[in-house]
């Protein structure tokens, strides 16, 4: 699954620089995650780094974007090969 940022986001800006894929950016009101770039840090780290640094715990799995670990690894390979 890709991750998502909920409206509990306080725009603290700690998640964006932690994303190794550049999937996090400032949205109109809160930060957003591009699901096409989010691999939950598979290929880079054991755990999603944005979740680790978020002070308000507002980065859950996106239930509409279910992906297996193998699918996330394939996405990682595609992203890093470019």
- Which architecture does the CATH hierarchy give at level 2? 2-Layer Sandwich
SS strand fraction:
5-15%
Q: Could you say which overall geometry the principal axes of the C-alpha atoms support?
A: globular
Largest sheet: 2 strands, antiparallel
For this structure, the CATH topology is Alpha-Beta Plaits
H-E string: EEHH
Output the structural class.
Answer: alpha+beta
Stretches where pLDDT is under 50 for at least 5 consecutive residues are: none
User: Quaternary status of these chains?
Assistant: single chain
Radius of gyration: 12 Å
InterPro entries: 4Fe4S_Fe-S-bd (IPR017896), 4Fe4S_Fe_S_CS (IPR017900), PSI_iron-sulfur_center (IPR050157), YfhL-like (IPR047927)
GO molecular function: 4 iron, 4 sulfur cluster binding; metal ion binding
Keywords: 4Fe-4S, Electron transport, Iron, Iron-sulfur, Metal-binding, Repeat, Transport
Protein name: Ferredoxin
Report what the structure shows.
Residues 1-29, 31-64 form the 4Fe-4S ferredoxin-type domain. One of its GO terms (cellular component) is cytoplasm. Pfam families: Fer4_7. This protein is an alpha+beta fold and 82 residues long. It has a single domain (16-81), classed as 2-Layer Sandwich (Alpha-Beta Plaits), CATH 3.30.70.20. It is 22% helix and 7% strand. It has helices at residues 49-53, 69-81, and strands at residues 24-26, 31-33. A two-stranded antiparallel sheet has the order 1-2. A hairpin with a 4-residue loop joins strand 1 and strand 2 (31-33). The radius of gyration is 12 Å and the shape is globular. The model has no long low-confidence stretch (mean pLDDT 96).
């Amino acid at each position: 699954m890709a991750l998502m940022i909920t409206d509990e986001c306080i725009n603290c800006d700690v998640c964006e620089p932690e994303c190794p894929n550049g999937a996090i950016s400032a949205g109109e009101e809160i930060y957003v995650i591009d699901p096409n770039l989010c691999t939950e840090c598979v290929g880079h780290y054991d755990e999603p780094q944005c979740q680790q640094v978020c002070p308000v715990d507002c980065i859950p799995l996106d239930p509409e974007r279910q992906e297996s670990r193998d699918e996330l690894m394939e996405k990682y390979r595609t992203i890093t090969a470019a």
